[in-house]
Prior knowledge:
Layout: H1 16-28, H2 33-66, H3 68-71
Helix pairs in contact: 1-2
Amino acid sequence: MLPEKKLKRIQFLIPENQKFFLDSVAQRENLSFSALVREIFAEYQKTIIEKELEEAALALYNEYETNDELTAFTALDGEDFL
């Protein structure tokens, strides 16, 4: 879980069956409802960030593979310069 920062009170509505489920998970994990929801949001945030980083890395990799200016010195990789 990410380090806690200043907390901001929010209010939202969820279906009763989801509330019941989250209450049972929170109790089983010995967490408050709010702490559980914060953990769920943090995990989702992490997932989104990782996906964005993966997409950026793939875009850069594709650019590296197709841009001759970026690969001009690839043949020199591993050669001695002495």
